[in-house]
Amino acid sequence: MNIRERNEQTEIDMLSPYAAKSKFSRGRVTDEELCDMRTCFQRDRDRIIHSKAFRRLMHKTQVFISPEGDHYRTRLTHTLEVSQIARTIAVSLRLNEDLTEAVALGHDLGHTPFGHLGEEDLNNVVPGGFHHNEQSVRVVRFVEKEGKGLNLTYEVMDGILNHRGAGTPYTLEGKTVQISDKIAYINHDIDDAVRAGIITENDLPKDCVEVLGDTARKRIDFLIRDIVKNSLDKDDILMTPEVRTAMYKLRAYMFENVYRAKQLASEREQFGVFLSRIYSYYLDNFDKVPQEFKNNPEVTKEQATADYVAGMTDRFAQRQFELLGLK
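The structure assignment produced for this chain is given below.
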């Protein structure tokens, strides 16, 4: 028995009966020889970490574009915080930590520069719309490795695709990342908004604070404990109704008072059309789109252009905007 087989057996023996087991994975789009050391989910995690898309997350906006200060979150630090929360829940529920980590690390690989401003901008011009969860799957299937993709397992791609929107991941590990993403961005975006002077902790809805806690640390800890308590030995990821209501009310508050805040109007005006203009330029000058995005003959001109533009970092997109004379 090699190391991978031993680890697969350990999962079967030790994890919850509701956890995903790497030995019984649905596999990959393209079959490949198994590793003698790492399970399939461990290999997926490693492929994501070593991808170019993952490295670019460090230069992509979470909420605040080009903030003055070194402590604001980026898309990469958000991803790491989601991974930390999700792994804590997964270990407590005896779920598959490797699968959980792979989904968490890959869930935002397809996010645009300039955060949700960039996503909304591309969504207005790309045929069929643009959604970062779908783009994240495109990145791991068709964009990385010069168009060859990472050939991840179905379980990881399902968790990435369904981490947001109306979709429901079919593994508990995917569901864990789905709720961990919300826990992370609600609370660390509050922290960044307070740092930016847009809100104060005292501005938060009092009923939410009374239920969840009066600091980000307390809220995250409370939410994790509530999920573990309600989900232990169950085939679902659950929260106390009162707690779930308070969390989503706090999320609604953030959309109304931070993400759409008047203080960010200048950012929306300045960066709100960057990507659509860059997209239109490269669509009209398709020969200037790098070849790596055109290697798959089944990919349309519009999709290849979207793949290229969505993969840009904030600073690269700003340079392109200026160099192409799109002011």
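Interim note for the steering committee: The chain has 16 helices and no strands. The domain at 42-323 is CATH 1.10.3210.10 (Hypothetical protein af1432).
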